[in-house]
Every structure is written in structure tokens, then in C-alpha cells.
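note to self: dont lose this again. the chain is below, predicted strucutre after it. 275 aa total, dont forget to put it in the shared folder this time
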Amino acid sequence: MNRTLTRPVTEDEIRTYETDGVVCLRGIVDQDWIAFIGDLLEQDKANPSDMVKNINAKGARGDFFGDTFVWQHVDGFRRAIFESPLAEAAAAVTRSAKVNLIFDQILIKEPETTTPTNWHHDATFWPVAGDKIATVWLSLDRADAETGAMEFVAGSHRWGKRFKAVSFDPSEAYEEDLPPVPDIDAERDRHRIIRYDLEPGDCTIHHGLLLHAAPGNASQTARRRAYLTRWGGDDATYNPRPNLQRMLRDPGIAPGAPLDSDLFPVVWRNGLVDA
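---
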């Protein structure tokens, strides 16, 4: 299994991320990693952590499964974080000399799952401040329009706006005083919407303030499995606020301090992995 990127991230790719808020990197992990992480997803789904929540829309068909902080629940995910090139990819794209793991997550949309992923951006869910905050969304299956590939509003990370977090759990609400996410579907002609079709081993990396969404999985046979790692780069600091997505525990660091802690470990620093 490859410990470093299969090729360098190019300057054009970094500029695409900076301009659009998202970039696609093809085949950054080899197929041994895909098989290894895929097995871990099945272990977690069979025995979820205490962080799991119901994210199926009311009355929806199929099954949309998600779990967070899985590296603290299934041992092999720690290896995926510290031995795969995911941290290196996040550091390269955000031009960071170090990256901290915020948390990892698995998302599985089984065949004929009608629950969509509603338009949102990530940063308002998390107790983290800074511009160099990104998600690496690693595809374990083919993701396309039928199976529920992500869509992104290009450039929305530079609107200078923060929108209220809307929980994926229908029974849960966040209370931060922020405006709602615009109805992007009603105004699609006003935006440049990006979708990347992904093969196993491809990933997208998107900025924490980039608006994105995904439809359900309309395929009758194909699954849509993804392993997500959330990263804070050089300028990321701890920013606790009320009514946010629940973290696994208090990280024990002061507001405004760097993320460095057991909960948010430094994984990659100046080209080296902090195992």
C-alpha cells in the first residue's frame, strides 16, 4: 500500500482548489488501500460506534449510513490516517507545512437509497477556525450522477458568508445564529455547479466553506461508499461554539490555540508523518 502520493500534486491542481474550492485527484491511493479501507467500513457498519446517528430522511427508502471518529473505534482506520497519503494530499492542496486530523467519517449510500445530502458547507459544523480547512472525500466505489456523486458550487467558499449548519439527523437541530443555506436547486442557473465522476481510489478535496450536496443513490445494484478525512492546516485553531456537531470528547485545548492534541493529532509535518 502506498505511503506517499502516487504523483505530486500540481500547481494547476492547487490553483483549481483555491479558485473553485474543490479539486479532484485521481488514483492517489492504490487498490490495496481501497480493499483495506472497504473492509474497515464493513466492520464499522456491523458494529457502529457511539457516534453513529440516524441520517435517513423521514419516509426515505434504502439506507444512508454514517459514523464519525471511526479511527477511535476500529483500529485499522488509524493505519489509514497515518500510513496512507491522505494527509499529504490535504497538506499539498492547502499549501500547509502541517496538517491536523479533525476527524474521520464513513458515508455509505446503499442501492436505491433516496435520502439526499442537502446543500451545506462543513466549517460551521465544527469547532475549528481558519482558512486552511478541507475535506478529503475518498471514493471506494464508482460515484457518478446515478449513484450520488457530490456536487459543488464553484467559488462559494469565497462568498464571505457562513450559513447555519443543518443536521443530517432529522431529530437534531443546531442553534447558531446564522442565515440558512440558499436554495441552490432553485437557482442552479445562477451558479457554476461542479461534479466529478470518481473511480475507486480517486478523491475530491474541498474547502470547509464550499457549498456542496449529493442526490440519493438511484442504482439498483451499486453502492456508494466513501471514507472522509477532515483536516486543519497551518492556520487552523480551536473555536468552540455552542450547538455544534458533537466531537468525541473535549480536546483539552484553549480557544484560539492550535489544534495539536490527542483528539486532533498532527499527522503530517514538513513532509514527515507523525505516527
